[in-house]
Design brief:
The chain has helices at about 55-60, 85-95, 110-120, 125-140, 155-170, 185-200, 215, 240-250, and strands spanning about 10-20, 30-40, 45, 70-75, 75-80, 95-100, 175, 205-210, 220-225, 230-235. The strands form two sheets. It has a six-stranded mixed β-sheet with strand order 6-7-8-3-9-10, sandwiched between helices. β4 and β5 (about 75-80) form a beta hairpin. The chain contains eight helices and ten strands. α3 (about 110-120) packs parallel to α5 (about 155-170), α4 (about 125-140) packs antiparallel against α5 (about 155-170) and α5 runs parallel beside α6. Helices cover about 35% and strands about 25% of the residues. It has about 250 residues and is α/β, with parallel strands linked by helices.
């Protein structure tokens, strides 16, 4: 599939993407001629076994890594055509991140952690943006915790703060890398429901990397990688079907 700037409704996309680590006989191909796009307001799960290339794909789509060859866009900006300074600026303004390890700043309280993307971008949020942040804080059940620091919060509350921070600037895409990996099952389900709500209620694009069939079943669309190539791209599936799909890919390796 050839994806170009002219494609409408895509929040992020890559075309002919290849990523190789090392050289010569020790070279390892993490991605092999991958082309895929994420629609606006879509919640996708990128699944696959360890080493399949799923995290590498997400990192390149988010501007955290660069491909060996191929092109990547975030919104209408071609990441692969930007220098380091401009790439950092686009990433700050167009991508939100939710990681397994939360990545909150321990010396900042909840509200300051949520406002951190604005500080890093060197600007103050507008009145409209402050209203949006207050809405997020209330919706995510953090109103009574805004003056607390991360160590005073449960794991689920910390992940809610990370989600609020990711949504605060209304980026093109939220990239979530195993966002429930450090959470108990109940809290994990709550976090997945919040990511799904970000897509359905706020029109937010969400790209989640996961190896968990249950987590992946919350997504609108499931993309599976094996050996650096896309081997499945289809609509929402039940957790049992996702597990069967992953097992079938393992069986043919």
């Amino acid at each position: 599939m050839q994806i170009t700037r002219s494609d409408l409704g895509l929040a992020a996309r890559v075309a002919g993407l290849t990523k190789t680590y090392g050289t010569g006989s020790s070279a390892v191909t993490a991605l092999d001629d991958v082309s895929v796009g994420i629609r606006r307001g879509e919640f996708i799960a990128v699944i696959g076994a360890s080493g399949s290339g799923k995290s590498t794909l997400m990192h390149i789509m988010a501007g955290l890594d660069v491909p060996t060859s191929g092109r990547a866009w975030l919104g209408d900006r071609e990441l692969t055509a930007l220098g380091d300074r401009e790439l950092t600026r686009v990433r700050r303004r167009s991508a939100g991140f939710v990681f397994q390890s939360f990545n909150l700043v321990p010396v900042l309280d909840v509200r300051s952690n949520i406002l951190l993307p604005f500080e890093l971008d060197g600007r103050q949020p507008t009145a409209e943006e402050l209203g949006w942040i207050d809405h997020l804080i209330g919706t995510l059940g953090l109103s009574a915790r805004t003056a607390h620091r991360p160590y005073e919060l449960s794991g689920g509350q910390q992940q809610r703060v990370a989600i609020a921070r990711a949504l605060a600037t209304r980026p093109e895409v939220i990239f979530a890398d195993e966002p429930t990996g450090n959470l108990d099952s109940r809290t994990g389900r709550e976090v997945l429901a919040l990511l799904a709500e970000a897509s359905t209620a706020y029109g937010q694009s969400v790209a989640m990397v996961s190896h968990d069939p249950l987590a992946s079943s919350h997504a609108d669309r499931i993309i599976m990688l094996a050996d650096g190539r896309i081997v499945h791209d289809g609509p929402r599936m039940a957790a049992a079907d996702v597990a069967e799909l992953m097992l079938s890919a393992e069986a043919v390796r």
